[in-house]
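[AMINO ACID CHAIN]
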Amino acid sequence: MTSAPPLVLPGPHTTGATGHAWLHAAVARIEADFQRSADTHLIALPLPDFAARGIDLYLKDESTHPTGSLKHRLARSLFLYALCNGLIHEGSTIVEASSGSTAVSEAYFARLLGLPFIAVMPRSTSPEKIAQIEFYGGRCHWVESASAVYDEARQLELETGGHYMDQFTYAERATDWRGNNNIAESMFHQMARERFPVPRWIVVGAGTGGTSATIGRYVRYQQHASQLCVADPVGSVFAAYHRTGDATLTGPGSRIEGIGRPQVEASFIRSVIDRMIEVPDADSLAAMRALSRLLGRKVGPSTGTNFVGMLTLAHEMLARGEQGSILSLLCDSGERYLPTYHDDGWVADKLGDCSTAHEGIVRLMRPALTSGT
């Protein structure tokens, strides 16, 4: 795949006139790309049994970004942050530690600026994401376990003289959480004409923690009554860290690609999160498939995790006689996971029998069945 035309400004990496000219052209190119993109859609889920009881559920569809996932926003913010802090220069090699979606999006922006890109990732990353990284001109550098990506990325930064983007550290600070077209501002703008415009709950997953940090801070800054819930897959350390505050915790990590971590990440800000819900892998997979049928198109496994959180909170609201809206994210398309999470043989081998979980999710989607009314 050929890269985008380079920013034609000769000369070494410098902070002089030439360096500033390259920087200005780079920022302008990213901003022009942003202006070509419409906002992502807000989907009202067709769940009439909940709606009849005064609870509306919504998903903001982040799969419609140019690179197909929520991480497009993060990659754009990380590039602008690094550019404006003088961390990226003409010819810089961009290095990232990523299990897939962030690397896909960063490869896109690296190509936009004519910069080489290396993604450090576990060998278990889905083939579809690998193909997309390579489509955008990126190179994949393999490690055997998720915990090894950090040190390897730092080593590659030294070897290339480039810049390690370090999404797990900078995600929470690269985005302007007060507004300026961030995801939280977009959510509340799109909800303005709904029956319950201020969500009772906003549900997200956490990989870096950047999205939950942005939304949690924005809600407080705007003085909204919404509460923030993070749906965390079993195996991730985030839920335990939220309970204990022990940043030294480690764990096996998540089997739900894109969310959950084996260690506490700097961008995960526990103090802005009101609730954590730990979701078993089988429930995430069952919810992913049930939601795919409901929408008529496939969604990814992290969206399934979010959906479990939404249904759990909806039933708690019903039990308390509350009404309101619950808003979450459709993180990426399920087309990326056809050989894995959407393949029956792969699921049976990796996760076992999910039929009981599927039956449970179907019941949760029909409150009339579970409440007996």
